[in-house]
From TrEMBL:
Species the sequence originates in: Hyaloscypha variabilis (strain UAMH 11265 / GT02V1 / F)
Limits of the Alpha-L-rhamnosidase six-hairpin glycosidase domain: 283-506
Signal sequence annotation: 1-21
Keyword NADP listed: no
Coiled coil: none
InterPro entries: 6-hairpin_glycosidase_sf, 6hp_glycosidase-like_sf, Bac_rhamnosid6H, Bac_rhamnosid_C
A GO biological process held by the record: carbohydrate metabolic process
Keyword Signal attached: yes
Entry GO MF terms: hydrolase activity
Protein name per Swiss-Prot or TrEMBL: Glycoside hydrolase family 78 protein
Keywords, in A-Z order: Hydrolase, Signal
SUPFAM superfamilies named among the record's database cross-references: Six-hairpin glycosidases
Phylogenetic classification of the source organism: Eukaryota, Fungi, Dikarya, Ascomycota, Pezizomycotina
Length: 726
């Protein structure tokens, strides 16, 4: 392997130099073949026990001796507060804010060196957690114990009655004395405020004064600990920022990968016995800590492409299917006893089932739950279809009060529901094909085509060149949403000229400094034109790549992920972004939400270029859509072994080089970009015909692709514009 690489470097270098020595310096030329160093981007803590990174100095107040002592190995910290009646300066509640350096989730422990109080009752310590400094206060940014839907055992902080002898306290959910001196348990946070105080309601067990000594603090990390040795897939490219955001996305999803705990979720009555104790993919690290199936449309792909823990997704999909309603509707999550009425999530359940089958090859799952797919598609959705148009129409059947991923108050033949319906039908038709259910496959394909045609017939607004959202009264509202417009392209509802028109409209009307808004205006609700959902933005980014508009896909990625990565808490990716780029629901916003990690599938599927089209990647394509990325390499895990890809381009000279290896027995189609039909193309240094297929989207004016089919387990090299190996 090593020898082969060295020989390849040599010939590659010589030929590349022969064409244009000046355009490449020594480093970039060989970058794609340099030793892998993706490990440097991994964000996971090194160990399950995590220690604070620093003290946020400007929050320190009151009489605190050695605040740095809360960091490991820095001595002891003393909190001292005299009894009331002494000077007001001395009366400030002693406070220190600890920064763990990045968002984390788990159970906090404090090693106390003891305490002293001159009167009965122990000195009280209170803790308030936050993902951001903006929402850090004496009350946590979110707390299950302080939520209308929670059990209200705390007022939003965790309380401790500090014992006089040294001991270690751990934030277990519950109360020290009956229903007094209570803690919320698990937290997802970056910062924690530690302050001496006591609730009046906790008398006589705690008092807001005395002296407390703290030796150290740590967190027992409860989520998936994604250290470098646990990666089964990875991505690296010439763009350092893209690489880091890919690993940030993986870390965000890792933080959501956890065992479902009866007392960790919001609201606590989401804790269905059928899911408690199982590994799941939660929506967020802080909240709800309840797995929602729409979220999995993005976060499961991130999970499959980075760590081989498909059970986290499978457990959720199986549990929701097990709670299917008799009319075929599938609940979005366990919340409210599996009754939260969403219209789109049963379709995402079908799409996620397809993804599980394609990415992990779980035939047992797909066979067991195939009847649930049939019932959803053939019983529930027909019941909310307008027979005059064949479009799903919110208002028909039970659907009037139903919500969706954004609880958007929209109505009628909404483009998003219908384009997602086409996706679910297409995916189900493919599943049916692999299970030899030919009649189902044909029926679903034909219905997908009918719905697709109806979307074009009824929902297109030629005045702006994009699809309407839905209806206001008897006519279409003058508003256009990112979700339906993007999915119309992903599903092929939009042909290539409409796709270009839609994407240019979204660029013009929806672009904000922190991503693309989910609506072009505020017709449906105030603030919509300033709100960005990283979740649904994935499908626009995917639409841009699929239309061949890699530059605009990368431009959107850089605005969206560039914003999140440079704003507190940094690293983890957010549930939603609101006006001025701030967390969209204030302190309630989850700042580590797996559904925002679309950068991971976007880069692996379209920059590295690997997409499955048969169960467990038994059939797959490799089709890089490189834009300004000069090289990329990575590994995609499959049940039968890795698919390894490494490519490098010189766009100006029209050169492209790709090497790939896949498991024996799988069938791959590899596409390489070519400028025109006179460029030479080589497979394993043998010339092959340049049968240029035009790129979608730009009418073929920017060249196209040449494809070859690979069926063995060997390494193959395809080069465009020059011959490798001679
Ligand atoms: C402390 O400094 C940070 C910036 O490091 C700032 O965001 C925060 O508002 C300050 N807080 C206080 C209480 O001064
Ligand atoms: C702060 O607390 C320490 C330790 O109890 C004490 O020695 C010191 O006098 C206190 N400082 C003030 C200004 O009260
Ligand atoms: C004020 O603090 C001193 C120790 O700093 C203590 O001896 C005294 O009892 C306090 N006074 C009152 C009224 O609590
Ligand atoms: C959840 O919390 C309640 C109240 O503290 C406790 O009784 C119960 O045992 C906890 N359940 C689990 C599974 O930890
Ligand atoms: C961390 O939590 C795990 C899971 O609850 C537990 O098994 C382990 O003992 C804990 N580690 C420490 C050091 O408390
Ligand atoms: C796309 O559809 C529109 C409307 O039906 C049609 O006018 C246009 O010619 C089609 N474009 C392509 C490339 O098929
Ligand atoms: C074809 O593309 C190559 C590489 O970009 C370029 O050098 C050549 O001039 C092109 N030929 C034609 C006929 O456009």
């Amino acid at each position: 392997m090593f020898l082969r690489s060295v020989l390849l470097f040599h010939s590659f270098t010589c030929l590349w130099n022969a064409i244009d020595a000046s355009s490449y310096d020594g480093q970039t030329r060989l970058a794609s073949e340099a030793p892998d160093d993706w490990q440097k981007y991994v964000r996971s803590p090194a160990n399950q026990i995590v220690y604070p990174a620093s003290i946020v100095a400007n929050y320190t107040q009151g009489n605190v001796t050695n605040p740095q002592g809360l960091l490991t190995g820095k001595g002891t910290t003393l909190f001292t507060r005299p009894q009331p009646g002494n000077s007001s300066a001395a009366d400030l509640s002693p406070t220190v804010v600890v920064d763990f350096g990045q968002n984390i989730a788990g159970y906090l422990s404090i090693s106390f060196g003891g305490s002293y109080n001159s009167t009965p009752g122990r000195p009280g310590i209170r803790l308030a957690f936050s993902e951001t400094l903006e929402y850090l206060s004496t009350i946590s940014d979110f707390s299950r114990g302080y939520n209308v839907r929670g059990d209200r055992i705390t007022p939003g902080s965790d309380q401790i009655a500090v014992a006089d002898q040294p001991y270690t306290w751990t934030a277990d959910h519950g109360c020290q004395y009956g229903n007094q001196v209570c803690a919320d348990g698990l937290h997802g946070f970056r910062y924690v405020m530690v302050y001496m105080d006591a609730l009046a309601a906790d008398a006589p067990y705690t008092t807001p004064y005395g002296q407390v000594s703290i030796k150290s603090m740590s967190l027992n990390f409860s989520a998936f600990l994604g250290t470098p040795d646990t990666f089964t897939g990875w991505f690296e490219s010439s763009d350092d920022q893209l690489n880091q955001w890919w690993f940030d996305g993986v870390y965000t999803t890792d933080l959501c990968t956890d065992v479902f705990g009866a007392n960790d979720t919001d609201p606590r009555n989401s804790a269905s016995p059928s899911i408690v104790g199982k590994l799941v993919l939660h929506d967020g690290a802080k909240r709800d800590r309840d797995p929602y199936v729409g979220d999995l449309a993005v976060s499961s792909r991130t999970s499959y492409l980075s760590h081989s823990v498909p059970e986290a997704s499978r457990n959720v999909l199986a549990d929701l299917a097990d709670h299917q309603r008799s009319d075929g509707w599938i609940p979005p999550a366990s919340i409210n006893g599996y009754t939260l009425p969403l219209l789109d999530y049963p379709m995402w359940w079908v799409v996620c089932s397809y993804d599980l089958f394609m990415y992990t090859g779980d035939t047992a799952y797909i066979q067991q739950y195939y009847p649930n797919i049939v019932k959803t598609l053939d019983t529930f959705y027909p019941s909310v279809t307008d027979p005059r148009t064949q479009l799903l129409s919110k208002g028909f059947g039970v659907s009037a009060g139903y919500g969706d991923y954004g609880f958007i108050p929209r109505n009628g033949p909404v483009t998003y529901y219908n384009a997602l319906y086409v996706l679910a039908l297409q995916n189900a038709a493919t599943i049916a094909q692999f299970l030899s259910k030919d009649a189902d496959s044909a029926r679903w394909s034909s219905r997908a085509a009918t719905v697709s045609a109806a979307i074009n017939t009824y929902n297109f607004d030629s005045s702006v060149g994009a699809f309407y959202d839905g209806t206001c009264g008897d006519s279409y509202c003058n508003t256009h949403a990112q979700d339906g417009n993007s999915l119309s392209i992903v599903t092929g509802v939009a042909n290539s000229s409409i796709a270009n028109s839609v994407l240019s409209y979204l660029s013009k009307a929806n672009a904000r400094p922190y991503g693309n808004a989910f609506y072009d205006n505020d017709v449906i609700s105030g603030g919509y034109s300033q709100r960005v959902y990283p979740f649904i933005s994935f499908f626009e980014i995917q639409a841009r790549f699929m239309t061949g508009l890699a530059d605009s896909a990368l431009e959107e990625i850089r605005r969206l992920y560039g914003w999140m990565s440079t704003h507190d808490p940094e690293i983890t990716q957010w549930e939603g972004i609101g006006p001025n780029g701030r967390p969209y629901e204030g302190d309630y916003t989850s700042m580590a939400h797996g559904w925002a990690s679309g950068i991971v599938p976007a880069l692996t599927n379209y920059i590295l270029g690997v997409v499955p089209s048969g169960p467990g990647f038994s059939v797959y394509t490799i089709k890089p859509i490189p834009g300004d990325v000069e090289w990329a390499k990575g590994v995609v895990p499959t049940p039968n072994g890795p698919i390894t890809v490494n490519w490098q381009q010189n766009q100006a000279l029209g050169l492209f080089y790709l090497t790939a290896t896949a498991p024996a027995g799988s069938q791959g189609t590899i596409y390489v970009p070519v400028s025109n039909s006179s460029v030479a193309v080589y497979l394993d240094s043998q010339p092959i015909p340049n049968t240029l297929q035009k790129r979608g989207g730009d009418g073929g004016t920017n060249g196209g692709y040449v494809s070859v089919t690979i069926k063995d387990g060997l390494t193959h090299t395809i080069s465009v514009g020059y011959k490798v190996g001679s």
